[in-house]
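Everyone, carefully examine this protein record:
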Amino acid sequence: MTIERPLPADVTRARRHGIADLLARSAARDPDKTAVVAGESRRTYAELDAQVHRTAGALADRGITKGDRVVVLSRNSHGFVVAYFALARVGAVSVPVNFMLTPAEVAYVLEHSGAVGIIAGDDVLNTAREALRLGTPSAPLRVVIGDTDHHGWVRLDDLDKERGDEFQARIDDDDPVQIMYTSGTESRPKGAVMTTRNLMAQYTTAIVDGGMSRDDVEIHALPFYHCAQLHCFLTPNVHLGATSIVLPGPEPGRVLETIERERATKFFAPPTVWISLLRHPDFAGRDLSTLRKGYYGAAAMPVEVPAELGRRLPGLGLYNFYGQTEMSPVATVLGPADQRRKAGSAGRPGLNVETRVVDEDDNPVPAGRVGEIVHRGPHTMYGYWNDPERTAQAFRGGWFHSGDLGRFDEDGYLYVVDRKKDMVNTGGENVSSREVEEVLHMHPDVVEAAVFGVPHPYWVEAVTAAVVPRPGAAITGEELIGHCASTLAGFKVPKTVVLTRSLPKNPSGKVLKRDLRERYADPTPPGGGRRAL
C-alpha cells in the first residue's frame, strides 16, 4: 500500500487537530455549558464557537490568510479569547505581546515578526498607535477590543458577522500558529515559534500531570500574553470543556471574591500573587472551600508559602509547573503528594518530556551534581523566528538547552539552583539584564553597569543595578532609576541602583554577578524605598 503525499485535501480536513478544533469539539459535546465568564459577559461553548467562527470569517474577508502574523496587545478579556481562537481558525500566527511594554518595545516585535496588523485593547490603544508609527505604519489590519469607536480602527465586536459556509484554514502539525517573544541574555527578545504539534503535546502533559478535568471552574487572572496562563490553563480548559473565569489582572481582593462567588475549583499564579492572597485581609473571611487545585510557576516559590497554604487551605492540592516559553512551557511537574517531601523541587519530567542535567560538554552528570538543564520531546518550540543561529545553538546535540542550572536527587526530582543566563525573574516577568544594562550605559555619567536579581519578599527577585559612575560625576541612584523609567517598561526598571567604585570580575574580565547578588542581597532599608550607595 502506498500513501499519497501530500495527503488529499479531504483527508487532511478530516484529520485536522488545531487549536480552533478544540473549541469546536467542546461546543459540539456541551453546547449549553458555560465556557467563558468575563465581567458581565457569560458565553456558552456554542455561543463562543459561533462568535469565533464569524470573526474568523471577517478576518479572512479583510485579507488575513494562513501564516500572517498578527500582534495581540491586550489585557485579559472576552475579546482576547475570541481573537486568539479566531486567528487560529483562520490559520494566522498570533503574537501575544506584554501590554506593559513601551511603544518602542512593541514596535520591535511588530517589525521583527513581520506582523500585518494588530489587535489592541482600547486601554493600550495609544501604545499600539505609537508602536505602529515607529515600526510598521503600513500594517493594514487594526482592530480594537472595546466599545469605543476609534478612527481608522475596526471594533472586534463589529467583526462578529454571519458567514454561511464552514470556514477553517488547512493547518499542518508543524505550521507555525503562534510566536511568543521571550527575553534572553541579549538586549532584544527572541520569538519562540509554536506549532500545533508542540502545543497539543503540551496540553496533554498539563492535563494529565496537572490533574485537570472538564468539571474545573478556573480563574484566569494572570495575563494571557504569558505562555503559562494561555497554554497551561486557558486552552487546556477549552480542550476539556471546563469553565474559565477571566479577570483583567490578579488584584487579590477581586480574586478572592471571585473564587467565592463563582465557586472556583482551580487557580494558577506565580509566588508573588499567592503571597498577596495570603496577606490580604479578606483571605480568612472568604469561603474558599471549593478551591481544590492550585498551581504555581514562573519563579521560585519560597518553601514557607506552600506550607502556609497547606495549613490555611487543607483541601488545596498544589502543583509546581517548571519550564519556560521555549517548552510551551511545561517541562517538569511537582504534584501535591510531593510538596512537603520534596519542598523546593521542580518535580519530575512531564508526560511528554525527557530532561537531563549535563556538563559543559553536554554529557549527563550523576545525581547531586549541578549542570545545565536540557530537555527534548514534542513540547519544544519549532525554533526562534528568523534566527537559525540561535536555534542551532539552543538545540545542539538534539536537546533543548534551557540555560538553567540544576541537579537531580537520587529519586529523580529536579532542583533548579541558578540561571546560566543573566535573567532576572521579577513577579513572574523575565527581565533581560543586558537590556537594562544597555539603557544604563546610554547615560553619559555611567562607566560600567551590571544588572542582577536579589531576593525580595514580594517580587521574589528585585531588579538591581550596580553602577560605576564617571569620576567626578554627581549622579544619584534615583536619577539613574528615572533614566531607565523613561525608556523601559516599569517591571524592567531597577528597584535599586547602587553606586560602587568597581565591579567584581574574574581574571578574564567577566563581571561576577554571583558576587554582586551576595553583596547586595538586601540593599533596601527597612520600610522600603530605594537608595544609592
Residues 525-533 have pLDDT under 50 and may be disordered. DSSP finds 15 helices and 26 strands in the chain. The longest strand covers residues 446-456.
